[in-house]
Batch of 2 targets.
Target 1
Amino acid sequence: MSNTTTHVPGPAQSLPSARVLKLAAFAILAVVLLVAPAVLYPVFLMKILCFALFASALNLLLGYTGLLSFGHATFFGGGAYFTAYCVKILDVGPLTGILIGVGGAAVLGLAIGVIAIRRQGIYFAMTTLALSQLAYFCFLRAPFTNAEDGIQNVPRGTLLGIFDLTDHVTMYFFVLTVFAIGMFTIWRIVTSPFGEVVKAIRENEQRAISLGYNVNRYKLSVFTVSAALAGLAGSTKALVFQIATLTDVSWQMSGEAILMALLGGLGTLTGPAAGATVIVTMQNYLAATSVPVNVVIGVVFVISVLLFRKGIVGVFQKFSKAP
Amino acid sequence: MEIFGISVPALAGQLLIGLFNGAFYALLSLGLAVIFGMLRIINFAHGAFYMLGAFSAYMLSAYLEASFWVSLLIVPLILAALAAVLERSMLQRLAGLDPLYGLLLTFGFALILEGGMQYVFGVAGQPYSPPASLSGASNLGFMFMPHYRAFVIVVSLIVCFGTWLLIERTKIGSILRAATENPSLSEVFGLNVPVLITATYAFGAALAGIAGIMAAPVFQVSPYMGSNLIIVVFAVVVIGGMGSIMGAIISGFALGLVEGLTKVIYSEASNVVVFVIMAIVLYFRPAGLFGKDA
């Protein structure tokens, strides 16, 4: 990643071709995403996109900043709850609903982040987990969440008064746009000077401090942005499935996002999306069989940690760099 | 007789329940602290080990008709053996890597163990009755004291302080502490550090197993009985600070008591009081109450 900013133009001609390859891959991906709803069930594709964005948001924190949050479901599910409530009860449009969900998730992220960044490493992970469990109980008890029932039958509404989102294909393109905006935001962040500082914190926090960076402020900023993006994913998910439930704020959900990011490749831009695609597809197939899904997810977790720490995209990058 | 407008028997009863829950918090956070001290990882599978302890007791009684007392001896050994296998075959390979990978690997263990038990037994709870010799209760004048609860509190105290003595006051303990402090130098002195690590992980799991079998007669024996408990225990560990064995024991019992008190005063908050305390402690004393490192 860093070689794009530090490389010196020299005799090596491989870089332009690598760039062409990247552009070609990007173009193919774009075409696939545009054509996909004609081939595959749009709701399934939207589920993948939502979780891909969720896992990418987590990866901004875990892969680029080196902070393992075990409580990101709070922001994902929190965003879903806020959006569902606003759209269903307060009767706002889908766009306003999503913006409120994102804002709410960002506020939650700021609140949890302020406390969590006081510890590092595994303490950070345990703290975020415990705080998200606190949030879970609050959502369970809050009067607007309907406890175990969740908020059901959330209307998708009409986007800007023009596009009827009850149509799956229209909704798909709306979700794809949201996904693209989210991914673009992440890409802008990690390629910005801000992103370089964040990566420096991951590599060597002490040195970043001694260079004069206010590390805690950077961490809190990334945490909040990551929470907001997870909220964006959750808000969109609430509209797609027209439901927001306790499952979305449970720690199992946080664990799934970590698995997706890890399986796809931590600290890579496209990895978490690849991981999300694999996991969601797997869950969809396994749901129809009697195979216990949690066991399979656990096995994938163990294999990823033991043998596959670079993830799917990490392995690809290794191969493409080998010659 | 009333204190704060609450009758004394009700207050004493809730405090007893608090102490009883604290006995489990203490056993589990002690196990986490022991494992963390040696392996530098957080054992996310600890809740699953606790659940397996309860299920092992249930299965020993259902299939082999083993008594509670026999199970109390066998179950920790089963858990220790399982943990030793997991450590030798997988966890050991993560030595030298970021400790977060250890957390993620043990999280995977927890998913497999819990999902597997759910596949076999379903989510419904299995019954397990306490030994007849511990059923019943005594009237202490101001409250009723169920014998089984008293038994659990006493056993937990004995095991906790026994572990503390073992680690802080015996030769075995000093060897373990030496191996933690400086593994390579300890190896130079002829200590087999990998075996010590395996033994420590097995010992921590055995503690979770003891907690599990003692929980079996009181709580429902179900696949996810450990997963919510372990998050509370994580909070307990963060409050106490991981560095200290005694810190884990004291904060375990203390937070159980606080939770019990909260049930009396403002019961809606009893589920979250530990997390709220954790947030407050982190804000004012990031290293935890007994921790030294920041």
Target 2
Amino acid sequence: MAQLLDMQAIGKRFGNVTALENGQLALEKGEVHALLGVNGAGKSTMIKILSGVYGQDSGDIRLDGETVSLHSPKQAKEHGIYCVYQEVDTAIVAELTVAENILMDSFAAGGSFLLSKQKINKQAKEALVQLQSEEISVTRKAGTLTLAEKQLVLIARALVHSAKIIIFDEPTAPLSLTESDKLFSVIRKLSSEGVGCVFISHRLPEVFEISDRITVMREGKWVNTFVTAESHSEGVIEAMLGEALSHELEYQPHPAGTGLLEVNGLSDGHKLKDISLSVGAGEIVGIVGLVGAGKTELAKALFGAANSVSGSVRIAGKQTRIKHPGDAIRAGMALIPEERRKEGLFVRETLRANASFPNLRKFSSGLFMNKAAETKFAEEIIGKLKIKTGDTETPLLHLSGGNQQKVAIGKWMSLDSLLYLFDEPTKGVDIGAKVDIFKLIRELAGSGKGCLYFSSEIHEAIGISDRILVMCDGQIVKELSRQEATQERILLYASGGKEELNKAEKLSERERSPISV
Amino acid sequence: MKENAVQFLFKYGAIILLVAIILYFSSISDAFFSYGNFSDILRSISIVTLLALGVTFTLVVDGFDLSVGSTMSLSTVVTASLMVWYDMPLWLVLLLPLLIGVAVGLVNSFLITVIGIPDLLATLSMMYIVAGLHRTYTEGYSIYNNMPLTSGGTAPGQLSEAFLWIGQGQMLGLPVPVWIMVIMVLAAYVILNHTRWGRILYMTGGNAEAATLSGVNVKKVKTSAYIISGVFASMAGVLFTARVGSGQIDAGAPLLMEAVAAVFVGYSVLGAGKPNALGTFFGAAVIGILLNGLTIQNLPYYAFDIVKGAVLVAALAVTYVYAKNKFAKS
């Protein structure tokens, strides 16, 4: 096979944060090459450099042996590099037809002023036939398509422009198993026609199923490139995590009590239907579901940040009415929200002001703020949570994602809450911070706090939870004990049990490792 | 290098500008650098500073109050009418206009927090409504001592000496309005920078969603800021009546943009990067000194808006260029 793409020693900095130090990626004609790494390893930066969104600070990109510079997405497309993003909706215009979406780049680029509908439809149809997806009508409005169909439209868009390289950025995350299988057969077809595919996924079993080679990145650096057929998932995981850290993400047993939080028949008249759950003192309960299952809605409903919530909530045996987050905080709850920059933190404010905020009374005398007390507390959590920061007066936007997340957790420490709600706490944090956050959650549980751990990262939930509740479509569909909880069972229930049982078995075949990353 | 220059300008630019202006005018005019003239300047900015302090509070919670000029106008004519038309006692004359400020603030915050109209648009509408109210109230006339009434005869009351002292008197070598301004600036500074409520105001403005999830009732906080803004505007109106000695209509309208400019100049004082009370005072002073110096230089009054606009755009340019650099990666 001929060398199609060669990215060597790619470096990229944002301000004083190094996103990439030595990124490498080589792609041959017709190869499916998986790019792996934990969050923050530099995958997305690599992809964005390849698709022309960012320019690299150092290093070379060679296409067919020739050095090229990709300074804009347009240039990348001219070189035949197309990207199928995870958020397909950002690339699809819902008001236009399927055909218009497929051929959008060519008429956005100019050409003739008048568009022939027939010609467009014909070209689009050809592309879809090539993808064995002729069942998608080219005259439908793109907004009415399913996620999987939208992905196919994006792939078709790449095809009509005779793409040489297609980047798939976590394409399977929102898909069902059947849809994933269909996507894989499309990818195989593309590669048989000589298109090079870069494939990003958090699901190791898929990676082993579809890829020819695997490149692993860690902390902005290339670690290793494996030939898939000759490697094991254990080796790949170790490459991703580093040896010392990989065991931290595995379950560590600890004692747990009962009766801290009891929720009965909670609904919000919209997404959540009849939710009942309980959390014991010292217990970590995982709430797992796919994207859109209603986890964040549940977290917010429990915390009083949602409208028209009905149902009964008892905290430490006491019936509690929670109408506003203020009520929840007074009742002993703390929420670490999913969108920490948007909902959890004040990024332009100092670490000190962020840390003291949920409990200002504690840091004031009379009406006046006591800055010394605030600073003392801020220093305390910097030390306790190992937050890497300049000092207590550093604005949070200068901190990395993981350190910001630690502040989002640490700011509740002055309240001595009973119950912590963690909504996707490891999203977008680097591996070191992830391990620290896991340790912290275990410590909280160890000191008798209850923790609810909302996550769509199934393996992580298995690694931390004492008990797992699976959510699907706004309901809790299954409770699994620690022993029963396996990745394939959770996935089965999380996808609504719609998948056939043999699919689940097939999945367990795919499952070569107890944990993936 | 470029980044450092921007940072330096942002931190000390306003102060350097002020010193430069003072030096320049002092060098070309003997009348400029004198105790009397500076006391004049301070008195002339006292009213606009009060307005600007109110705007500062609304900007702190990430709002914007465009209705302060109209609120001041309404308060001006109401104050005058209470004395001239209705001959009311002084304490009521001082209290009732402040209640008008509270009322305007409440309506503003109702439109913004309950109905959900964006701050700028809600207060723009209120700007017109309140301006219309104050003209309707006086039927388009200014209010002065011994004015003829439409019902026949002349007005029964007078603007009393005690009341006029508020706007025209002297105390410990400084005009009374200057003392009022200094006290209000310091009060606003202490509230915003050193009290729990001030912290909540700033944090709410920084990220309302995060504030909600930290237990803050954002609607109440915003409402409080708009009430404060209304009260400051009506105080400015009372002061204006006492200063001029009559209830002029449309007194506040021309001061609105000057107040806004003062707040934005204040953003860049000592690199605060956000609305702040001392900066607002400083901004009002820069504009006041500039206008005073230009008056001494015989710049015609109709050209003043060019200067005010230029100061505003310069302040905004420094603030936004700085923000772009500082927050580029976020």
